[in-house]
Write a structure and sequence with these properties.
Helices cover 39% and strands 17% of the residues. It has 496 residues and is of the alpha/beta class. It has two domains: 353 residues, Aminopeptidase; 111 residues, Alpha-Beta Plaits (2-Layer Sandwich).
Length: 496
């Protein structure tokens, strides 16, 4: 019989205002990948104040940190001791993954109409301000539960920078940060209350810089060699490559530098590529073909090119045992409750959506007929949505994938957004900074704490999750997809 984590749930209720204030502060900071100095410091200081031992600068990333709290059973709060795993006397290690980076170009006030805080600035268009604080609330609440019951165990909060674009967890995973964790749990703000069952797309990201020869664009263009021409020809080659990619593969690019002025043949130009596919091996093959397009473009234009790998990450392994634990915990906690003001804000923000946007979103969710009917009638989801009978096809990417190859891992979403809200948008950023997002965040903290407590008190479930993990990995030790010595790309957003 499952015992409810009453102390943990009460702690979250009692500290809801402080958790909301923290999430709003980080929403206001809106810091880009690997430059989340204020956000990371705010979270680390809060955990330190709650008795966690905080180690900053993890694996050479200034905004990465690990916060740990241990209890040896009948011993004192914070008692140290070697990890023993489930049932080994020292209790299991339960990890919570926190994120706190923002996205460029989606700056937005808390308003149902588009009003940037800073024109062209960054904003929390993926809700990581909520994600990081929700996971923190769970970590502290679970620690309070273990202390109150004098149960052995270790609670860890992993402060993970740069989930967007630069994948901080992949560097942490490569250096073994998650290897001794018995279970890693996380969540993500979304439009429904539902356990995540789909994998994610593995991917590579890189900068490709072409070097040519400048010349006067009217007087002697024949003496120039245009790096911009090379970028455009490479992009055209990739466009023709699309027909021959794996069905679920995705390739995206932006030209980050195309030259300085039109009357000078550009001697330098740069394009940023993201190459995705369902399996790591598919990414490796497709990535090489994209680089072949770069080589061909360089030969056609008489230029040379340089490749800077930014990151390479794995697809996610879904641990159904842990997903069952999260689903049961969510049903015990219950969905978010929204106020009339929340519903009115959501109604108004949906006025900015395309007419078919909500229905398109629902059509991709693999819903039961009952859930589909319910969600069509809702603006904000206040029910628990059943998991699909079969795994959903992956569509996005996350560096949680690398964690899932190091330790049993599972995640879920709670309703923090109006149904149909597009990802990485100003609408998402607006709702991440107000009561709709807060409601989903507090529920997520409770679900994570409940699930963590379930794993601490049921070693058989934890052992089952571990057995499933070993089956999924085939017993193979995680191997980073990045070459040895690969460094985080601190410079990518240095000037923004």
């Amino acid at each position: 019989m499952t015992v409810k984590a009453t102390t943990a749930l009460s702690w979250i209720d009692e500290h809801r205002d402080a958790l909301i204030a923290m999430a709003d502060d980080i929403w206001g900071y809106a810091e880009l990948a690997l430059h989340e100095e204020r956000s990371a410091a705010r979270l680390a200081e809060a955990l330190r104040a709650e008795g966690f031992k905080v180690t900053t600068g993890t694996v050479g990333m200034p905004t990465a940190f690990v916060a740990e709290w241990r209890h040896g059973g009948a011993g004192r709060h914070g008692e140290s001791g070697r990890r023993g795993g489930a049932g080994a006397g020292k209790g299991p290690v339960i990890g919570f993954l926190g994120e706190y980076d923002a996205l460029g170009g989606v700056s937005q006030k808390v308003s149902p109409v588009q009003e940037p805080v800073v024109e062209g600035g960054a904003g929390h268009g993926c809700g990581h301000n909520l994600l990081g604080v929700g996971a923190l609330g769970a970590a502290v609440a679970l620690a309070r539960e273990l202390a109150a019951r004098k149960l052995p165990g270790t609670v860890r909060y992993y402060g993970c920078p740069a989930e967007e674009n630069l994948s901080g967890k992949a560097f942490m995973a490569r250096d073994g940060v998650f290897d001794d964790c018995d279970a890693c749990l996380t969540w993500h703000p979304g439009a429904t209350n539902r356990v995540s069952t789909n994998s994610s797309l593995a991917n590579n990201a890189c900068n490709i810089t072409f070097r040519g020869q400048s010349a006067h664009a009217a007087g002697n263009p024949f003496e120039g060699r245009s790096a911009l021409d090379a970028v455009q020809l490479m992009n055209m080659g990739v466009e023709f490559l699309r027909e021959h990619m794996p069905p679920k593969a995705r390739v995206h690019y932006v030209i980050t530098h195309g030259g300085d002025q039109p009357n000078v043949v550009p001697a330098s130009a740069k394009v940023w590529y993201l190459v995705r596919a369902p399996e790591r091996a598919q990414v490796d093959e497709l990535y090489q073909r994209v680089l072949d397009c770069a080589e061909g473009a360089a030969k056609m234009t008489g230029t040379r090119f340089e490749v800077e790998l930014l990151k390479a990450i794995w697809n996610t392994l879904n641990n159904r045992t842990l997903e069952d634990v999260l689903d049961a915990a969510m049903r015990r906690v219950g969905p978010p409750a929204f106020t009339a003001a929340d519903l009115e804000f959501a109604r108004r923000i949906t006025e900015s959506f395309r007419p078919d946007q909500k229905e398109t979103y629902l059509s991709r969710q693999e819903l039961s007929p009952e859930d589909l009917k319910t969600l069509r009638s809702q603006t904000l989801n206040d029910t628990i949505v059943a998991r699909p009978a079969v795994l959903k096809e992956p569509s996005g990417s996350t560096d949680v994938g690398d964690v899932s190859w190091c330790a049993p891992t599972a995640q879920f979403g709670t309703a923090c957004l109006a149904l149909g809200t597009p990802g990485h948008s100003w609408q998402y950023a607006a709702q991440s900074g107000m009561d709709i997002g807060h409601a989903g965040m507090l529920v997520a903290a409770k679900v994570l704490a409940e699930a963590g407590f379930e794993l601490v008190t049921n070693p058989d479930t934890l052992a089952k999750a571990r057995a499933e993990f070993l089956e999924l990995t085939g017993g193979r030790k995680y191997r980073s997809a990045m070459p040895p010595g690969q460094k985080p790309a601190f410079h990518q957003f240095a000037d923004e």
